[in-house]
Design brief:
- By secondary structure, the chain is α/β, with parallel strands linked by helices.
- Helices cover about 45% and strands about 15% of the residues.
- Helix 15 packs parallel to helix 17.
- The longest helix has 22 residues.
Length: about 450
């Protein structure tokens, strides 16, 4: 692309586009980077520069940026039935096939799938389903929702209330009342001196039990949780965490919603994060890698415990009054089906396990670096926590500054990723090769050395 055309694109973008999760004034003054093409794990910008997309876009592009089979699946479906809906007892074959496929893949018995268009919509739908369910059971007080600090569940009014991040709440008058947030299960930052991971997990389970007793189990509809927390910093739960937390929920008969938006479809080296951690949810939330984000689609999968009262309530009310125009869009559903077929045919779940071991071994070597306090993750998702002092885990000047410098250094290495505070997140496409993974990690190491030179006394 000619440079003047590229600068025009960036100028037009800054002139007309309000970006998500962006400083609008900064973007208006500086403009951003415009991507024009994708190729495997790479994206190519308006100047022709090739970048490793080390976060799979937004944790989502499992098959990379140029999978022809997904393009062909969309084209075939567009030529047959480009749109139909699922309202008032209507359906179409891609939707039926995808629902059946997901129920068959479920790690625990599930009953029905409700389709939406994004993770935010799916989590918002799950909240409404639970409230509807509680009313169907004749328990109108059973409406409070438990989530966690640093959780990310979306940005609609309901799902943003689940999210445990101040920058998602600030200025929006969120969270809504009735959304309760527990401590994040980050042992490195939240563990007490001398505390083991098991003891830390026991303390967090006791926190959950105390909260439920204080609020009253009869007032709590469910707990929402990511198996491994993604956008909050790639926080892998400590030893014993999920068995202890689920024991408390079972004791109080409170449903568990597993938000698999990032973990689902192979990211952790198992098909679902719930499998990896032995979680037995009542509701599961899917998006992102469901279609490799080639088209927007998400899903809420519910078990019979949730479905039966909801169905009976819909009969009393003559309808289940919820849905979106594009719920279960036929083209998105066709792409999702092809995407799942490719993940299975190419053994990408096992590949994520094997390459994940390689990635985490390389990340563990980085703990010798003067700026690295911790590396963590599972499968093909990881994070590097940066500190100025390994002894007291202190930041540079203000929290997040080291992470910003590292992101900038990685950009100079033509690696696109994101710092989450002082943690650098890595979530490459599942199709990444061994050599590409090694190249990515070499560039990460070079970027850390660059930052070390900038901040050395």
């Amino acid at each position: 692309m000619e440079s003047n055309e590229a600068s025009t694109l960036a100028h037009r973008d800054a002139q007309f586009h309000l970006h998500p999760f962006t400083n609008a004034v900064k973007n208006a003054h500086e403009g951003g980077k415009v991507m024009t093409r994708g190729e495997g794990i790479y994206v190519i910008d308006e100047h022709g520069q090739k970048h490793i997309e080390a976060l799979s876009g937004l944790w989502c592009v499992a098959l990379g940026f140029s999978e022809q089979r997904l393009i062909d699946a969309a084209t075939r479906q567009m030529s047959v039935l480009p749109f139909y809906h699922a309202f008032v007892q209507r359906s179409h074959q891609p939707l039926i096939d995808l629902a059946e496929k997901l129920i068959g893949m479920a790690p625990v018995p599930m009953s029905k799938v409700f389709f939406t268009n994004s993770g935010s919509e799916a989590n918002d739908t799950a909240i409404k389903l639970l409230w509807y369910w509680a009313n169907a059971l004749g328990k109108p007080d059973k409406k409070k929702i438990i989530s966690r600090q640093r959780a990310y569940h979306g940005v609609t009014i309901g799902s943003a209330s689940l999210t445990g991040m101040p920058h998602v709440h600030g200025g929006f008058d969120l969270p809504l009342d009735g959304f309760l947030h527990l401590s994040a299960p980050h042992f490195y930052r939240e563990g007490k001196p001398g505390e083991t991971e098991e003891a830390f997990s026991t303390r967090l389970a006791d926190e959950l039990d105390t909260l439920i007793r204080r609020e009253g189990a009869h007032t709590i509809a469910a707990m929402f949780a990511e198996p491994l927390m993604g956008a909050g910093g790639v926080i892998a739960p400590p030893a014993g965490y999920w068995p202890k937390m689920q024991a408390v929920l079972r004791k109080h008969d409170i449903p568990l919603v597993a938000d698999e938006v990032i973990c689902g479809f192979g990211r952790l080296g198992r098909m679902f994060g719930s499998e990896y951690y032995g979680i037995k949810p009542d509701i599961m939330i899917f998006s992102k890698q469901l279609s490799s984000a080639y088209l927007p689609i998400s899903a809420v999968m519910i078990n019979e415990r949730i479905y039966r009262p909801v169905a009976e309530e819909s009969e009393r009310r003559m309808t289940f009054g919820h849905g979106f125009t594009a719920s279960g869009h036929p083209v998105a559903a066709a792409v999702a089906l092809e995407n799942l077929a490719i993940i299975e045919e190419r053994g990408l779940v096992e590949r994520a396990r094997v390459l994940g071991e390689r990635m985490h071994a390389r990340l563990a070597e980085l703990t010798a670096h003067p700026l690295v306090g911790e590396t963590r993750g599972a499968g093909l998702i990881g994070a590097i926590e940066l500190v100025m002092s390994k002894e007291d885990k202190s930041p540079l000047e203000t929290p997040g500054r080291l992470g910003t410098l590292a992101s900038e250094a990685l950009a100079r290495q033509h690696v696109i990723t994101r710092n989450i505070g002082d943690a650098i997140a890595l979530c490459p496409p599942l199709i990444i090769s061994e050599s590409e993974l090694d190249e990515l990690l070499n560039r990460v190491h070079a970027a850390l050395d660059d930052v070390a030179q900038q901040v050395k006394p």
